[in-house]
Structures are given as structure tokens and as C-alpha cells.
Design a protein that fits this description.
The chain is α+β, with helices and mostly antiparallel strands and 513 residues long. It folds into four domains: 211 residues, no CATH class; 84 residues, no CATH class; 76 residues, Immunoglobulin-like; 108 residues, no CATH class. It is built from ten helices and 22 strands. A hairpin with a 4-residue loop joins strand 10 and strand 11.
């Protein structure tokens, strides 16, 4: 297809127009009525022009419809507009034809023909009937309104072409004469029927010419915005360049056709990027999205925008180091794991535990709890392309947490909490309400666990006293009160229970008064 072209007047059309002007001028000079026969020649030539225009228009519509059948998505909307042009052109053309026939029948009466050709008119010099039908009966006003509507329709279709708008404004001008006469008076008042019919035929010819002009433009619009490609290459667009065993590699293979002379502008957000190359420093982990658009200037000067959106994932540099001999989880406490799958966002990673439970915290961190002895299996899964795939995992031995140490916990004179296993204390502190026997990992704590002391025995020079709980009973306090300097207090048989439910026997605590 080719772009829209103007339809300049042919030499024949120019000749007809000049003859029309000459004959009109001669009529204005009251030339002999025999000169009116010259309008027959002009009218015949105009009909010949109309027939040629209709042949060309019919071929144009046929070609247009064939293109629409081949590519309806591209052509149909323009063909629909062309059909509207044809309907409006036919409406005006047929209205003018009926207008002419009515005047001729009023003039020649029963001798009138069904078609309005000047050569068939008998009373070519009749001045009354055209004025009577057009002006007296008010039909000229209706005709002028229809011509103006058609003209405005054409101008609206040519909104981006001021030159053609001016052309249609001139061709279908209805402003009247320079002496202030209205258009209908200029055309129909004291004008012989041969001149009036010729003028109306000229309008019909203009309608068919304008129709061809506009339809040709619409047909040209079907490819005016197409790319003129001069380079075609194969292009592979993968869904992802990172594929995990068990998943599926997917790519779209297409032909890429480009115009190497066209230079699009590429934008990320509102920022122009050079040659469509988008690069960014990745200093943060996580999933990131970005969007933008491509602006391309076409041959007709219009600019088309093509939006796009994509995303990418940034992960921490990672390596997997595993000490298989120490693959251990402890019963009764939260075992914290950091689990990730390279190339998969943390929100798409899940964990399943056989023999325990898993709770996701955030950013690839999980809490694993064992609920059986022996071993548990931790399985890692990743959601890829809507499917969960097993990514691996391993067996972990289940152990009870290590035994803690026993301490006397008290507050010193400054209110600071202290722990004592072997050392000196005053009777005042030993008898204070703040002192208690605790079980703890102390400063060497590697894992966090809470223990409860359930019982212990105190041994002094006065004998042994046992109690439940973690505090001295009244008998113990009485024995302590009797002690003197350098006497010893020994705490033994200390029992404690941890979060795993196991009862433990802890070591001695010895204090010198």
C-alpha cells in the first residue's frame, strides 16, 4: 500500500471550469440565449468526469475491502470510515440529482426526461422555475445546509491537513457573492435553467472528486504508521536465563524486524537512557521492578509510545558449607535456620519438616522445632513458574540440649545481679530474699534455653536439709544464721528441668562464709 496522494485537477477538468466561468460571464452580460447551448458542452463534460470518478471510486472501495479481508485488524477501522464517506457523498449527490430533476420537470413538464442533462432540457433559457423551486419554495436553503454539512464533515476528517481543509472550504463555499447576495440568490435568482443545472452538476462532480480524495487518504492511513524495516534477524527471548533441574526452560523465538535508520528514544520512568541499555548498581537484595516506554517518531511526524515493564531479583553472594557431623537440631527450643535458593526470591521458598515443624519468619529465615527423637528431615521447596519444586534438604540428628551449670544468683550492694558457683558470701546476702539457685549456661551460652530448678540439698556443719524449688527454706535460713566465719555451705543434688522436659542433675555449689 502507498500513502495518501492529492488528486489535482486534470487538464480536462481545468478546461471545463474555464468554460463554465466564461459562459457564466457571458450570461451576466446578457449574451444571446443561443450561447446558453454552451452549457450543454460543459454539463456533458462534467458528467463524463463524474463517470470517471465513480469508476475510480468503485475500484478504490473494492481494493479497500480486499485489504480488509486480508488484514481486518489493521484495515477495518479505516474501511468503516470510508463507508461513512461513501454514504454521506451518495446522500448529497442523490439529493442534488433529485433537485435538478424537479426543476427540469417544473420547466419542461410532460416533455421532461427522468434524468437532468442540460442537453435534454427544452426550455434552456427559462429563468422562472429554478428561482421558484429553489428560492420561493425554500429548497435552496435545504440544499445549502446539506452542502455545508458535507463540507464540515470533510474538514473534520482532514483535521491534520490545513491545506486540504482550505481546499474543501473553497470547493464547497456557500458564502454568496461579493455584492452581499446570499448563495441561493447568486445561484438561482434570474439564472436560466441550463446554467443552474450545470452549476448543480458541477457540485456533483466536486462531491465525487472529494470522495475519491478522502477515501484515498483513509486507505493510505492503513500503512502510514507502519515500520519500513530494512533489517530482519532471529531473536530468542527467554523467560529466565536461570533454570533449576526439574523445572522447565521456556523461550519465545521471534523474527525481529527493525529500521536501522530510525532512532527510538528509550526511557526508564521519565529518564532517557542511552541506546536502550539499562544498567543499575545492585547494592540491595530482594525483588525489583522497573518500567518505562519507547518513543518512536514515524514517517508522518507522529510519535508512538510503547510502554514496557520488567523485574529482576538480587540475592546475596552465597556458598554452601556443611559440617555433616554437626547436622544437629535440639529438642524443646527454636532452632533458627537461614535457607535460600539461588535465583529464587525468598518469598517463593518454603520448608517442610518430617518429624518437626517449620515457621517462616522473614527474608529466608525459619524456626525449626523437632518433635521426635532420632532424626528429622528438612526439605526445601521453591515456587517456579507457578509450581513447587523440591530443591533439596537433609537429615538432622535430634539431640537434647546440653546440661546447664548451677549458680547462686544474688544482687550485690550496688544492685547488680551476680552469679556464683564457688566463692565467698556474707550471711546477710545468703539470707536475703534476692538469692536463689538457678540453672544456666552462663557467659558461655551458645544456645538460649530456660531452665527451672526443682529441688536441691544444703549441707552445713549442722547437717543436710533438702527443699523443693529454687529458694532456701526457713530451716536452711536458721542453719545459715548459726554459721560463723570460714564455715562452708554446700548445695548438692540440684535438679533442673529444661524446655525439652528432661530432668537434669547439676554440679555442686560451694560458698564460704
Amino acid at each position: 500500500m502507498s500513502g495518501a496522494k492529492n488528486c489535482p485537477e486534470t487538464p480536462r477538468q481545468k478546461m471545463i471550469g474555464m468554460m463554465y466561468l466564461v459562459l457564466t460571464a457571458m450570461l451576466a452580460l446578457n449574451v444571446s440565449s443561443e450561447i446558453l447551448n454552451g452549457f450543454t458542452l460543459v454539463d456533458n463534460s462534467l458528467h463524463t468526469t463524474i463517470e470517471s470518478s465513480e469508476i475510480r471510486n468503485n475500484a478504490l472501495y473494492k481494493d479497500f475491502k480486499n485489504l480488509s479481508e486480508i488484514n481486518p485488524d489493521k484495515v477495518k477501522k479505516w474501511l468503516d470510515k470510508a463507508i461513512v464517506v461513501k454514504q454521506k457523498s451518495d446522500d448529497l449527490y442523490n439529493f442534488i440529482e433529485k433537485f435538478k430533476v424537479h426543476i427540469v420537470r417544473m420547466t419542461d413538464k410532460e416533455k421532461a426526461n427522468d434524468s437532468a442533462y442540460v442537453k435534454q432540457i427544452i426550455a434552456k433559457d427559462n429563468l422562472d422555475k429554478p428561482e421558484e423551486y429553489a428560492i420561493t419554495e425554500g429548497n435552496a436553503i435545504i440544499l445549502r445546509k446539506k452542502i455545508e454539512d458535507y463540507k464540515n464533515f470533510l474538514i473534520q476528517l482532514s483535521a491534520n491537513n490545513p491545506t486540504k481543509q482550505k481546499m474543501y472550504e473553497d470547493v464547497f463555499a456557500t458564502k454568496g457573492g461579493i455584492d452581499g447576495k446570499k448563495w441561493e440568490n447568486v445561484v438561482f435568482e434570474m439564472m436560466p435553467i441550463s446554467a443552474v443545472v450545470t452549476i448543480l452538476t458541477k457540485y456533483q462532480s466536486d462531491v465525487r472528486s472529494a470522495e475519491a480524495e478522502v477515501v484515498q487518504d483513509l486507505k493510505g492511513q492503513t500503512d502510514v504508521k507502519d515500520f519500513r524495516v530494512n533489517k530482519v534477524s532471529a531473536l530468542v527471548v527467554p523467560v529466565s536465563k536461570y533454570v533449576i533441574r526439574g523445572s522447565r526452560y521456556s523461550s519465545q523465538i521471534v523474527l525481529s524486524a527493525v529500521d536501522s535508520t530510525a532512532k527510538p528514544d528509550y526511557y526508564i520512568g521519565s529518564s532517557l537512557i542511552n541506546k536502550g541499555l539499562y544498567e543499575v548498581n545492585c547494592n540491595k537484595t530482594g525483588s525489583f521492578t522497573y518500567s518505562g516506554f519507547i518513543k518512536l517518531k514515524r514517517d508522518d511526524g507522529s510519535i508512538t509510545t510503547y510502554p514496557f515493564k520488567s523485574d529482576y531479583i538480587v540475592g546475596e553472594p552465597s556458598a554452601t558449607v556443611s559440617n555433616e557431623d554437626l547436622n544437629v537440631v535440639y529438642r524443646g527450643i527454636d532452632n533458627k535456620f537461614s535457607i535460600s535458593v539461588p535465583g529464587v526470591a525468598s518469598e517463593n521458598v518454603s520448608v517442610r519438616v518430617s518429624g518437626g515443624t517449620a515457621q517462616k519468619i522473614a527474608n529466608g529465615r525459619f524456626i525449626i522445632r523437632a518433635n521426635q527423637d532420632g532424626e528429622i528431615n528438612i526439605g526445601v521447596f521453591a515456587k517456579i513458574e507457578g509450581k513447587e519444586l523440591a530443591m533439596g534438604g537433609g537429615m538432622y540428628r535430634v539431640k537434647y540440649i546440653p546440661d546447664p551449670k548451677s549458680f547462686l544468683q544474688y544482687s550485690d550492694a550496688g544492685g547488680i545481679t551476680r552469679l556464683l558457683q564457688d566463692g565467698n558470701l556474707s550471711k546477710r546476702i545468703l539470707k536475703s530474699n534476692s538469692i536463689s539457685v538457678i540453672a544456666s549456661y552462663g557467659q558461655d551460652e551458645l544456645i538460649k534455653a530456660n531452665f527451672t530448678v526443682t529441688s536441691f540439698t544444703m549441707v552445713t556443719i549442722f547437717g543436710s536439709v533438702s527443699t523443693s524449688g529454687s529458694h532456701f527454706n526457713s530451716r536452711m535460713l536458721n542453719d545459715i544464721e548459726k554459721l560463723e566465719g570460714n564455715d562452708f555451705v554446700t548445695l548438692k543434688n540440684i535438679k533442673a528441668v529444661g524446655p525439652d522436659g528432661k530432668v537434669r542433675s547439676l554440679g555442686l555449689i560451694q560458698v564460704q562464709i
